[in-house]
Design brief:
5 helices, mainly alpha, about 0% strand, about 110 residues
Amino acid sequence: MKSLYLLDVLKRLESSAPVREFLARVSTDRFPVDCGGLEGAYTAILAALCRERLGSSIFVVAPTDLEAEAFSRDLGLAGVEADSFPWWGTAAYRPVSPRAPVFGERSAA
């Protein structure tokens, strides 16, 4: 039942003028596309619609690991499986131990 409701919501959103314009710009490689001010799961829903329209993977950059995890959860609610690309865990331009587990995590992603 929940998935049917979600599909209905996605179809209704897709029929709105701003979302149609966004998807048209993404589909025809007219970049940049400014999507500032989005709140909550709306960004993940747009990403899910974008992925469906393009039929390929997309890469999203989040400011923090917490926001990336929340975005992944939101994508899951929209029916899209997401992989996280982990942060190095160090300050910029600082060395990382060659045995750090983050190398394996990033390779797996």
